């Protein structure tokens, strides 16, 4: 669709935005919650890119993490559980000039919203989609999520979860037309920032899984990994996400060309190490909103076409 | 028993000397064409209907659709076809029984007979190849069917359609429909050139050779009929005082959506709503519109709401099961006050129900389907013309009142075809450009007007208007409410909009005298049939009137006062209700028709109901019977 009616005051805009221009009310997440760190990183990116608050839209579902838009001063749409991607698709399809971000929890994205997630990857509509994965349902108080590790105890599976955890990276990489798949962790702010920046710059559907601590319900979940960087392996490549600040801290690294989908899928498989970095990127994939970008007509022009249509039904 | 058929001609018979045909003059005549699925009876009937409309007859056509895409051939339940009712004045409904049938095999015909679709003594033009079929089982079936049909008193004319068509095409299965069209054109004295134009249009995506073959078949049927049939039917035509167009309800909705300036339609295929998207698919892009086939109905609602949130005019189309899936999103749109038009082309329910058949069973689901209080506007077009205009109304209301507007159409309107006045299109229907101006300091996204509940919305892109809409209870600034008084107030503001809207409506007009013994109340596609029934009983001297509701939420004012002028009020609807006198059913536990349930609750009038779920539109004759059986006690002329 054309955006000629939506002329965002491009020209004489000499505003300079500070980080505080994106900060909303104090976030109500638990102290130590990983969501805080993601919020800060996102605010830094908005500041860095001098995003216009009025042309930036954050869409979310329902969950702790989905409160995200409330803590920003951009436009926001706090939707319903699992359906954020559908709302965001509607926004971007109709207003391609808007900068659209989606924030979801793991339950939101890969459980109740699983259908939309798979299709959003295929639509490849230009937006950033963040899945804040704390491996548990936070807002509803510690129920098993599809990404909960097998055996982990929750309120709905108190003797330990029955099945192996779902691997959302593998699943995403398996979807036709995937164009950007990355994994990062909120406790590594430099990597988080670099990943979100790459996602934001990507033209297409940038899906990022952010490993996120939930000290309230799963304090033990990522504790070891945070303390022991040798549990983490970085994907490195000149075309990948580079974080020099981590060079000294994280020793394990594997060179991976983000154009290589087969290798990406292998690397996404379970391993001893948690792999962070850019798994796959291909900006040449078709984007749905481009196929649906149609000329704009004035009301009078439309009336003229309408008359032709009615002629076909004329008696 | 030997079956004697009239005019059992063969290809060679054509052209024998004959007497002038008998001419039946009538003001109202119904024709059915029935075949196995895939034999094109519907196309034949559509063209016949269009030509008849172009020639100045009132027309209503309705498709006869089997449940499966390809039911077994020659099966009782497999009839695929179409009914065309012609009149010397505008025809508003499908009528009662059929006067004339063209059938491609005797089994589908028998199916129609057993459904009581055919008038006593109806004339039947029947493919007779089955009588001499090589398979004995088929011949036996034919024989048995003939006995039953002859017994029923029909006037059956056998026609060797197959043999005749084979003189033009290799596969007669693909050609009989145009042959049948030729027969009908002769019987009803239709303009053959107009029929040929319609054929060209219908086959516009095919080669010229295909068009030519179909023209040839049409000529063949016409010629054969003129040589062999002993009767013709004459239905006087009207002078068209204004330009007319002819289409079905789903086409009218698609065109209405475009005329209303809709920019995005999101849907997931579901009968009988899907064909709206077929029509849109063809034309929408020319207008710069986007038709989005989503991964499911929930996503379709989400995409439409997202687009509307972003300032585009968007709608979603579905039928019952899809309405159920969209429920949570409808609540979100109501709560966030994002305009949304939802078209529900109702079919039989619950669950998968009767996918291709008409019902008016989604009223309460549309009204109360969402958990919590979710006030929204519901309107129901009663005619195909209203299908068109309802889209324009719906868009305006959705935007002015920042809410969900549900348009309840149904399978009867969706597949019914009737001519109506060509609308005069107004550019203002397209709506103005969205407000992109900066929001003044301290502007609030829900600055509710205390009296009306109305407020202006800030769409993304408006500087200074940034806020987060949320399905959580919220205040004027869209801040999550932690104070219970805020919820009470915001609920009141959303509800107030409906009260404010209803204050702008006029009491609906009563059809017939403003007072009397019985008032029949209807909604949606039953209007034509109800008014025709009311006309008939009024001619017999009964004091019966009717009232048709377009707005179901909010209801128009004045209903209680109108009801008070009648001794009895009764709704007539196509949905389920317990019948009085059934086991365990009494006045208190009786489950009533959906509109009567609503009217009783809102007016405190003892509104009775007469409802049926037969999977077909109501017949005027059935309503006449219902009226007579339900007159209040002591009515003059009441049946004992
Ligand atoms: C349709 C529906 N079902 C269930 C819920 C209840 N619910 C709210 S959030 C949530 C899960 C939250 O987990 P997650 O998506 O992982 O996000 P987190 O809170 O951990 O950030 C559930 C089940 C709901 N709001 N809506
Ligand atoms: S419950 Fe967990 S996820 Fe939710 S806010 Fe607290 S720490 Fe964060």
The CATH class designation of the largest domain in chain B is: Alpha Beta
Termini gap of chain B: 43 Å
Question: What's the CATH first level of chain A?
Answer: Alpha Beta
Classified in CATH, the superfamily of chain A is Thiamin diphosphate (ThDP)-binding fold, Pyr/PP domains
Shape of chain A: globular
The main pleated sheet of chain A reads as: 9 strands, mixed
Structural class of chain A: alpha/beta
Number of separate domains of chain A: 1
Shape of chain B: globular
**How many DSSP helices of chain A?**
11
Mean pLDDT of chain B, to the nearest integer, reads: 94
Number of helices of chain B: 19
Query: How helical, in percent, are the residues of chain A?
Result: 25-40%
CATH level 3 topology of the largest domain in chain B: Pyruvate-ferredoxin Oxidoreductase, domain 3
* Total separate domains of chain B: 4
Kindly describe this structure.
The complex is a heterodimer of chains A (315) and B (640). Chain A has a single domain (19-313), classed as 3-Layer(aba) Sandwich (Rossmann fold), CATH 3.40.50.970. Chain A is 31% helix and 18% strand. Chain A contains eleven helices and eleven strands. Chain A has helices at residues 34-48, 84-94, 106-112, 114-123, 168-173, 189-201, 215-218, 223-227, 261-268, 288-291, 299-313; strands at 56-60, 75-78, 99-105, 127-133, 136-137, 143-144, 180-185, 205-211, 232-236, 253-255, 274-281. A nine-stranded mixed sheet of chain A has the order 2-1-3-4-8-7-11-9-10, with helices on both faces. A two-stranded antiparallel ribbon of chain A has the order 5-6. In chain A, β7, α6 (189-201) and β8 form a beta-alpha-beta unit. Chain A is globular. The two termini of chain A are 33 Å apart. Chain B folds into four domains: 22-234, Pyruvate-ferredoxin oxidoreductase, PFOR, domain III (Pyruvate-ferredoxin Oxidoreductase, domain 3); 245-427, Thiamin diphosphate (ThDP)-binding fold, Pyr/PP domains (Rossmann fold, 3-Layer(aba) Sandwich); 436-504, no CATH class; 510-629, Rossmann fold (3-Layer(aba) Sandwich). In chain B, β22 (566-573), α18 (594-603) and β23 form a beta-alpha-beta unit. In chain B, α10 (297-309) runs parallel beside α11 (320-336). The longest helix of chain B is centred in the middle third of the chain and has 21 residues, at 208-228. In chain B, 54% of the residues are buried. Classes of the chains: A alpha/beta (315), B alpha/beta (640). At the A-B interface, β1, β2, α2, α4 and α11 of A face α1, β9, α8, α10 and α11 of B. β2 of chain A pairs parallel with β17 of chain B. The site of iron/sulfur cluster has 11 residues of chain A, from α7.
């Amino acid at each position: 669709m054309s955006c000629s009616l939506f002329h965002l005051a491009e020209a004489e805009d000499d505003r300079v935005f500070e980080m505080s221009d994106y900060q909303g009310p104090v976030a109500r997440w638990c102290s130590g919650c990983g969501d805080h760190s993601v919020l800060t990183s996102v605010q830094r990116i908005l500041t860095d890119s001098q995003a216009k608050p009025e042309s930036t839209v954050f869409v979310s579902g329902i969950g702790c993490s989905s409160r995200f838009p409330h803590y920003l001063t951009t436009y926001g749409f706090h939707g319903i559980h699992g359906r954020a991607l559908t709302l965001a698709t509607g926004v971007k399809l109709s207003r391609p000039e808007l900068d659209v971000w989606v924030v979801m929890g793991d339950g939101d994205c890969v459980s109740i919203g699983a259908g939309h997630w798979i299709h959003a990857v295929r639509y490849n509509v230009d937006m950033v989609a963040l899945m804040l994965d704390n491996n548990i349902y936070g807002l509803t108080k510690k129920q098993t999520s599809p990404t909960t590790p097998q055996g982990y105890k929750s309120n709905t599976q108190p003797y330990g979860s029955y099945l192996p955890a779902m691997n959302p990276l593998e699943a995403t990489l398996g979807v036709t037309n995937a164009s950007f798949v990355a994994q990062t962790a909120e406790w590594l702010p430099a990597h988080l920032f670099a990943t979100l920046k790459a996602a934001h710059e990507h033209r297409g559907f940038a899906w990022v899984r952010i490993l996120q601590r939930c000290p309230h319900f799963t304090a033990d979940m990522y504790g070891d990994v945070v303390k022991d960087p040798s549990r983490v392996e970085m994907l490195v490549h000149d075309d990948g996400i580079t974080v020099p600040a981590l060079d000294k801290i994280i020793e394990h690294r594997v060179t991976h060309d983000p154009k290589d989908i087969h290798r990406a899928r292998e690397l996404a498989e379970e391993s001893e190490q948690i792999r962070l970095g850019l798994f796959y990127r291909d900006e040449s994939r078709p984007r749905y909103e481009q196929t649906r970008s149609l000329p704009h007509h004035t009301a009078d022009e439309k009336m003229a076409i309408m008359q032709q249509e009615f002629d076909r039904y004329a008696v | 028993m030997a079956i004697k058929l009239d005019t059992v001609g063969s290809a060679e018979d054509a052209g024998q000397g004959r007497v002038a045909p008998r001419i039946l003059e009538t003001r109202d005549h119904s024709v059915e064409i029935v075949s196995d699925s895939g034999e094109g009876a519907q196309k034949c009937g559509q063209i016949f209907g269009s030509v008849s409309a172009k020639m100045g007859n009132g027309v209503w056509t309705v498709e006869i659709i089997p449940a499966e895409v390809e039911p077994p051939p020659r099966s009782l339940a497999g009839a695929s076809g179409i009914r065309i009712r012609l009149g010397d004045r505008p025809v508003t409904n499908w009528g009662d029984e059929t006067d004339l049938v063209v059938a491609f095999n005797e089994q589908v015909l028998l199916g129609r007979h057993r459904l009581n679709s055919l008038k006593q003594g109806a004339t039947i033009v029947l493919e007779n190849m089955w009588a001499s079929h090589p398979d004995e089982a088929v011949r036996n079936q034919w024989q048995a069917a003939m006995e039953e049909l002859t017994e029923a008193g029909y006037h059956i004319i056998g026609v060797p359609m197959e043999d005749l068509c084979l003189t033009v095409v290799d596969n007669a299965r693909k050609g009989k429909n145009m042959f049948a069209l030729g027969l009908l054109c002769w019987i009803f004295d239709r303009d053959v050139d107009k029929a040929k134009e319609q054929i060209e249009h219908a086959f516009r995506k095919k080669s010229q050779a295909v068009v030519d073959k179909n023209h040839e078949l049409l000529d063949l049927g016409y010629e054969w009929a003129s040589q062999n049939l002993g009767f013709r039917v004459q239905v006087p035509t009207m002078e068209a005082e204004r330009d007319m167009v002819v289409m079905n309800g789903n086409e009218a909705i698609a065109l209405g959506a475009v005329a209303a300036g809709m920019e995005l339609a999101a849907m997931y295929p579901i009968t009988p709503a899907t064909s709206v998207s077929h029509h849109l698919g063809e034309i929408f892009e020319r207008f710069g519109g986007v038709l989005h086939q989503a991964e499911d109905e929930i996503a379709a609602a989400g995409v439409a709401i997202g687009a509307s949130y972003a300032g585009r005019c968007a709608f979603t189309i579905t039928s019952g099961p899809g309405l159920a899936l969209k429920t949570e999103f409808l609540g979100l749109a109501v709560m966030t006050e994002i305009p949304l038009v939802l078209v529900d082309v109702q079919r039989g329910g619950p669950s998968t129900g009767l996918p291709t058949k008409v019902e008016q069973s989604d009223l309460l689901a549309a009204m109360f389907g969402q958990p919590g209080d979710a006030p929204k506007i519901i309107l129901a077009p009663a005619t195909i013309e209203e299908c068109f205009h309802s889209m324009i109304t719906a868009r305006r209301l959705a935007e002015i009142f920042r809410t969900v507007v549900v348009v309840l159409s149904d399978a009867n309107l969706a597949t019914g075809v009737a001519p109506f006045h060509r609308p005069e299109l107004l550019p203002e229907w397209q709506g103005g450009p969205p407000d992109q101006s900066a929001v003044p300091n301290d502007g609030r996204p829900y600055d509710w007007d205390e009296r009306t509940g109305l407020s202006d919305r800030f769409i993304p892109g408006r500087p200074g208007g940034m806020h987060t809409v949320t399905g959580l209870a919220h205040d004027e600034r869209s801040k999550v409410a932690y104070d219970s008084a805020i919820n009470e107030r915001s609920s009141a503001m959303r509800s107030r909009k409906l009260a404010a809207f209803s204050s702008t409506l006029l009491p609906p007009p009563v059809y017939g005298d403003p007072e009397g013994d019985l008032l029949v109340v209807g909604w949606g596609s039953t209007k034509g049939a109800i008014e025709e029934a009311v006309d008939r009983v009024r001619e017999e001297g009964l004091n019966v009137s009717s009232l048709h509701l377009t707005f179901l939420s909010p209801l128009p004012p004045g209903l209680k006062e109108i009801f008070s002028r009648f001794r009895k009020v009764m709704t007539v609807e196509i949905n389920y209700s317990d019948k009085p006198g059934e086991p365990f059913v009494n006045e208190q536990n009786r489950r009533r028709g959906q509109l009567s349930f609503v009217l009783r609750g809102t007016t405190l009038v003892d509104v009775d109901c007469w409802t049926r779920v037969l999977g077909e539109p109501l017949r005027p004759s059935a309503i006449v019977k219902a009226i007579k059986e339900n007159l209040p006690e002591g009515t003059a002329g009441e049946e004992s």
